[in-house]
UniProtKB/TrEMBL annotation:
Signal peptide: none
Swiss-Prot/TrEMBL keywords: Methyltransferase, S-adenosyl-L-methionine, Transferase
Annotated binding of S-adenosyl-L-methionine, by residue: 53, 80, 154-155, 181
Protein's UniProt keywords contain Cell membrane: no
Gene3D superfamilies hit by this protein: Vaccinia Virus protein VP39
Function: Methylates the carboxyl group of the C-terminal leucine residue of protein phosphatase 2A catalytic subunits to form alpha-leucine ester residues.
Organism per entry: Sinocyclocheilus rhinocerous
Name of this protein: Leucine carboxyl methyltransferase 1
Catalytic activity from the UniProt record: [phosphatase 2A protein]-C-terminal L-leucine + S-adenosyl-L-methionine = [phosphatase 2A protein]-C-terminal L-leucine methyl ester + S-adenosyl-L-homocysteine
Length: 293
């Protein structure tokens, strides 16, 4: 997990795993289940991994909400949002406090998500003022509503991104949390560098939270690499930036970059009570853990 700051400041399988962790009580999200056909139960180790990922992203979101609470205009820009339920669960928690959420994914993914939302009473009732807009020129698909916007655009295409997001109402000078959770590493590094660069350039008051794999050569890293090899899918950034993504962010215009591996997050930032709660949910005998020194 890495966050950079400036100024003052195989898609469905991911959802299925998040739904599994939520169903086992690792975290609370009543909306993820609306984005899958069937709720399946994953192995305890996978549930716990998804919990730590979810908790780390949530931690960054809550820090951002706290740091910007006095600002009247605040935004979350989620790049490669897929079928994540972020807006709906934060809205239900009452945590958004006027923050506007912009979710971006490829047009075909955004179109499927828009169709899903429009056909689901629970989800569409949470967007009473929504309109579905289709931009013929850029092939972008929108759901546009007061505090939720779903946009179909390839994030590698900077000019299209700028035009489309401006059209959707993104305010480039407002405090913004840019989120990319397991997205950039699927791109060749010239493209992930470019995305990180346009975000730094276009959003002068922002923090970029990214969650990606590091340490390809530890036992877990090797399992993951073999898995992606079988899927014929390369994890590009991992080759070039195996330990941290500091080298990825700073040359692209970010002023500061902090990287945390998930063991550090689990042991250093979670309270003992919360760790005990989680470890009591589905005890398992063996797991490898690299405690921070
Ligand atoms: C592994 S999924 C993660 C989804 C979501 N961030 C989550 O954590 O649940 C990666 C997502 O990134 C999207 N994506 C990858 N490259 C993209 C690009 N160039 N432009 C827009 N979306 C992209 C994919 O379509 C997919 O929905």
């Amino acid at each position: 997990m890495c966050s950079c700051s400036r100024g003052s400041g195989r898609m469905l399988c991911y959802v299925v795993s998040k739904v599994s962790a939520a169903a086992q009580g690792y975290f609370h999200d009543d909306f993820l289940k609306h984005f899958v056909c069937k709720v399946s139960r994953r192995a305890p180790l996978i549930n716990r991994g998804y919990y730590v990922r979810w908790k780390a992203v949530d931690h960054c979101l809550k820090q951002f909400f706290h740091a910007t609470q006095s600002c009247s205009r605040r935004q979350i820009l989620s790049l490669g949002a897929g079928f994540d339920s972020l807006y709906f669960r934060l809205h239900a928690e009452g945590a958004l406090g006027g923050v506007t959420v912009f979710e971006v994914d490829f047009p075909e993914v955004a179109r499927r998500k828009a169709a899903l939302i429009n056909s689901n009473t629970c989800l569409k009732d949470m967007l009473p003022d929504r309109e579905t807009v289709s931009n013929q020129q850029t092939n972008a698909v929108f759901i546009r509503s007061g505090h939720y916007n779903l946009i179909g655009v390839d994030v590698r295409k900077e000019q299209e991104v700028e035009v489309t997001l401006s059209g959707a109402g993104l305010q480039w000078d407002a405090p913004t949390l840019v989120l990319s959770e397991v997205v950039l590493t699927y791109m060749e590094t010239q493209w992930s560098d470019a995305v990180i660069g346009w975000a730094a350039k276009l959003l002068p008051q922002s923090v970029f939270v990214m969650y990606e794999q590091i340490h390809p050569d530890d036992p877990f890293g090797r399992v993951m690499q073999n898995h992606f090899l079988k899927l014929n899918s390369t994890i590009h950034a991992l080759k070039q930036y195996p330990d941290t993504v500091t080298g990825l962010c700073l040359p692209q215009g970010w002023e500061k970059c902090v990287c945390l591996d998930m063991n550090q997050f689990y042991f250093d930032l979670l309270l003992e009570d919360e760790r005990q709660r989680v470890e009591g949910l589905e005890p398992f005998d063996e797991f490898e853990v690299r405690k921070p020194p």
